[in-house]
């Protein structure tokens, strides 16, 4: 068990190291000098040269890399080329917004998908199970941004229940916060719920065919009791896998949804920085997303060990 | 059929009475008019080839038929519940109360019969907690260790804390047996409990099954296709083919002097005398043809398409011919064949 844990931890650290090289390398391999790109074609050679020395872009690449990684480890990814604003606080600020959006969407998706998926599985031979299954198939095919636009036109434009976009801090205006979070979270959640429900359905169907569920019935458990006490934990492994992937997808999907709903999240920061050609900011945001995805995978691995005792046995 | 035979003993020791049990989908019949009784302390074997309806009979009695299959007929279990109610008419809630308590079952596949994410001790404890057969959680815990000890598992207190994947197939089947016996059932159904086990382990598990049933004076229905196992475990045997019971009786009589042509073929193919009786490499005796797919059995005698003695008469359903008296009624000893082996008319 401990061995397995250390093994997973090692994999995480190695992945992070590789990811940092890739992210850093990719940005440097792009054609054009970062300083020149940031200042634009009209900047004087002197100004570009000054920026290069100021940001150490004239040093060897390896030194620049180590300097950058060192900054990341100190949670200080540097300052922007043009505005000279610190990147760290900006990311922290934006991350809060995105985390709210992603976590609420995920919880919402799970809250919808769990009962719906179970219902689809238990009733898979009946008309309602089949109808729900068909409906979820349609849900899978709808992109989140389209769902967002439809939700805006109905609930914000036609019914005027909630604002069409924007953001307030929850501590400042809790009601306004919920109002502004509802539509973007829902548009992300609906699509994810459709996908998740289908996975839950097939996982539960697999488990319903298991012998140990029949044993549970033979012990005197009624069908639903047997499924809840013996089925769900066994169905959880494939579902947790998908949940991890979805959380990663949501994080990336939030980039688009933040644009649709004008939310100052990490995704908006990324797109703005790309537009402003702020290489260091782009690099830092991408790295944050990569770290988030890798940590999610690590947590999923740990959950496997928690759920299924067969996986805990030492690596042989 | 339903009328009790004249020779019924003064005290009714019947635990399970199955009368005219039929199982099928909407279009296909799979079990036809199956009738038998099992008395307290009696161990009855149910044999036949795969697809003959043995497991279906067990699942119908348990009320655990797969979706899409329906049962008709009359199944009554005496002992803890009043035998006045037909199990097939019982709502799921009441049936669930019986399962694991008065009526329990051991399945064929020990490797998959236990929940892989739950400690085996908890799985044994669960059946007592569901039916509240122990006064306290502490009592349940003590009883778990006791039960695991009874099925000869080493270091039961420690073993109760392991997960199924840490046990061997034989050990797992012992755990399943402990679960089935935990609430001292009136009837234990075993569906090929040793088929998936090593031969060396089979004998000890069979011994434990018999010991467990004997200690509780329980009735047992033992399903297998292995005639040798039936001969060692059971007193009486039911022979099943094509969803019908074609012959029944004490093991010695049925195997030693079979009447139904199917039983005759089955006994010949099993060669119970063992290897020493066959010195030279001769072709092993077999029953010609193969078991037809479900629902494709002929009308009349189900065996007539594979029987060398079949003629026009066999096109109509042969009547049940009682062969002798038996405390478990006339369905307990007899056969359904118009050209029986053994007695008169055999060449």
Automatic annotation (TrEMBL), chain A:
> Which molecular function term from Gene Ontology is one that the record holds?
dipeptide transmembrane transporter activity
For this protein, the parts annotated as crossing the membrane are 9-30, 99-122, 134-157, 177-200, 235-262, 282-307
Q: Where in the cell is it found?
A: Cell membrane
- Keyword vocabulary terms for this entry: Cell membrane, Membrane, Transmembrane, Transmembrane helix, Transport
Pfam families from the xrefs? BPD_transp_1, BPD_transp_1_N
Q: What is its main location?
A: membrane
Question: What's any one GO cellular component for it?
Answer: plasma membrane
Question: Which residues are in coiled coils?
Answer: none
Q: Which PROSITE patterns match?
A: ABC_TM1 (PS50928)
The membrane topology noted for this protein in its Swiss-Prot or TrEMBL record is:
Multi-pass membrane protein
Q: Which InterPro entries match?
A: BPD_transp_1_N (IPR045621), MetI-like (IPR000515), MetI-like_sf (IPR035906)
Keyword match Membrane:
yes
The residues covered by the ABC transmembrane type-1 domain are 95-300
Keyword Nucleotide-binding: yes or no? no
Give the UniProt family note. Answer: Belongs to the binding-protein-dependent transport system permease family.
Which protein, by its recorded name, is this?
Answer: Peptide ABC transporter
